[in-house]
Structure formats: C-alpha cells, structure tokens
Amino acid sequence: MILSHRLSRDVLPPLEKGCPVYISLQEALIIGNCQEQVKFSELTLDMYRMLQTIEREPDPDLNQSETIIPDSQENSQKVGKRENPHKYLLYKPTFGQFYTFMGTAFKELPPNAALLLYMSADGSSGCDKPQDYGAYDYGGIATNNRKEGNDQRSNNKPSGNLKEMHCVHPGDIYPFTRKPLFLIVDSPNSHVFKGIPNLFGQPVIVLMSPVQLPLAIQERCYVKGNLFTLFLSDPVMAFCSICDITDVTADVWSKCQKVMAKVANDSANLLCKSRGIDHVYMQFYGDEYLRLLILRYIFCYATLRYHRGFKDESFYPQSHPDLRGNDIMENALLHKHVLELASILDVRPVFLEVGETD
Q: H helices then E strands: how many in the chain?
C-alpha cells in the first residue's frame, strides 16, 4: 500500500455551494529546529510532513482544473490551474534569516491572499522578571541554538532581561499581521503565541500544539516527529500513535479512512452552522489547504480530549481565537466518530464513552 499525505479530493469535503471565498493561501514558511528529531538533508520529519500537507496530489483525470481566487466577499473569479502555495523551507534559521524570508513572503503576497507560518522547534524560556506579557518577556520559539560571540552569559552573571538572539517571540510576528496570517506553532512553548492581538484588522489564526504530553507519548514523539504535526498531516497515523498501534491491515486502514471522511464532513458542517465562532475562521475556510488544517485541528482536540491518558489541560492543543465553547470541539457527534475509529482499531477502552467524565 502506498500512502500519500498530499491534498486530494478524498480527504477534504467540498466547499458548500454559495460559500464565499475570501482568502487563498499563496505563501508559506516552514521552519524546523527540533534537536532530537529525525531529519534528512535539511528537513526535519515535521517539516517534511507539513510540506506534503500543503501540496496538491496530482490528478491525472484533471488536465486543466479550475480554482477560485477571491475577488470580493460576494463574488469570485475562476482562473486556470491552481498552483501549490509557494514555500520557503528554513532549517535552523538565524533570526536574521527568519526575518528576511518572512519579509520576502509578506512582500510577495497578492491581495486577498494569506501567509502560512509553520514553526516546529524547541521552546525558549522568557526572562526572570516578565513585564510585557505576550510580546517578548515570556519567551518564544528557538529557531537556532547557535551562541553569538557577544553572548557573555557563560562568563558573566546573566542579566534577568537577557534573551536568546535566535528566538522568534510573539512580538516579532506583530508587523506581519498587516496581512492575513495563519500561524501554526508546534513547540513546548507554543502557548505564548495565544495572545497575539489583532492590531491591523486583518484575519489572524494561531493553532498551537499541546505544551506537554503524557510521558509514554513523549518518549515516542521526540524522535519520530511531534504529535500535533502528525495529526495535521496524517490523523489516522496520529490516532494509532497515541494508542500504541504500530501495524494495521490494509482493510482496517481503509475503514479508518472512511471514518475520517465522516469526521471531516461533520466537522465542516458544525463549523459552518455555528453562530458563536469568530468570523476569522470562515474567512480562511474557503481555502482548501487552510480548511483541511482547521478540520484536522478539531479532530486532534477531540481525540486527545477523550483519550483516558490525556487528563490535563496542558495535553490539549489550543487555538486563537478559541474554538472551544461553540459546540464544535466537544460535540457528541465527533465523540462518537472517535469511538467508532477506536472500535475499528480494537482500542475502544482507551477512550471515554459518550457522557462519561474523567
């Protein structure tokens, strides 16, 4: 069996007729710096998985497909074959390299287009006496672990305000929120990005990984890739991972994929019909790649929420704006799908039953 993790018609429900397309994904930065993670060439496993996720599977039946590019809130125009988003792959970039490529991607964004920033990296702690919550004092993501020559912390008493040079703080992202931004952070320090303010009125979404995992899961994920990214790229494989399943038959895998199709359809319906969610989600929803990431994020949360081994809030992913509390993430229908998937894989006792509380 050959598995593909690229976008295809089989993994994503179609956009409902009449649903406006506000934004399309055109530029993407994929950044990786996980010290203990498997890598090949200049790609970590997480980077490779995200690269595949935002790539379209070639369709031999469609020689000249059409795509919808946003024109206005009510009207859209059809153009020729949709290209994959333009991608920058940065392995262990310095802060200067990060800012240069972010600026380039930002500059290249056409109107009604979004920039995706994906960061899978180790966390960097904040200063001893934080004063400016959320912007710089609570740390961020270490994109490179190299020490510069003017870093004297090893020789002198460290300053309480001294910060890592090659670290992306939430405040470093603020200038780029002048245009639509979709941010994914997979790191033990991901939660510091949940307070990014909407300073310029443009849509901004942040999907953040759990800040920690149960010990048994941690030992498997450090080397084989982060769990959150695995859910975004291959939900069934991630489901098997947290249930310690290493082998499945082709027939079982096919049944699991059918359940995932139902999960995607029902999650999409819940999202579209909800009146309580922030409108920013619907602004990004029209784009196929971003829609796929949002729906898989919902499945990730539901799966971890009902797994008996994930009993702490820090074990769950977060989003900004928050999707919880809108009868989507905790919906009983999604819970039933999680149990159906668990039954196919013969691990149902690992999950809470409908109505059961941990």
A: 10, 13
Q: How confident is the model at residue 72 (pLDDT cuts 50, 70, 90)?
A: very low
The H or E element spanning position 165 is none
Give the pLDDT confidence score for residue 176 in this predicted structure: 97
CA atoms within 13 A on the CB side of 306: 29
**CA nearest neighbour of 179 among 102, 120, 77:** 102
Cis amide linkage into residue 188, ω under 30° from 0: no
Q: Is the dihedral of CA 37, 214, 341, 300 positive or negative?
A: negative
Q: Fill in the amino acid letter for 188.
A: P
Residue 195: its pLDDT value, please? 84
Contacts of 2 (CB under 8 A, 6+ apart): none
Out of 118-132, 171-185, 246-260, 294-308, least confident range: 118-132
Residue 210, helix vs strand vs coil: coil
| End-to-end Cα separation, the chain, in angstroms | 38
The SS3 assignment for 272 reads: helix
How, if at all, do strands 113-121 and 140-142 pair? unpaired
Closest by CA to 48, choosing from 30, 62, 25, 22, is 30
Which residues neighbour 179 within 8 Å (Cβ) at sequence distance 6 or greater? 106, 109, 113, 114, 115, 202
Q: What value does the mean pLDDT take over residues 275-295?
A: 93
Cα→Cα distances 48→4, 39, 233, Å = 12, 9, 10
Q: How far is CA 324 from CA 150, 187, 331, in A?
A: 45, 21, 10
Nearest 5°: phi and psi at 120?
-120, 105
Distance CA 139, CA 186 (A): 14
346: left (phi over 0), alpha (psi -120 to 50) or beta: left
Other C-beta atoms lying within 10 Å of the C-beta of residue 203:
21
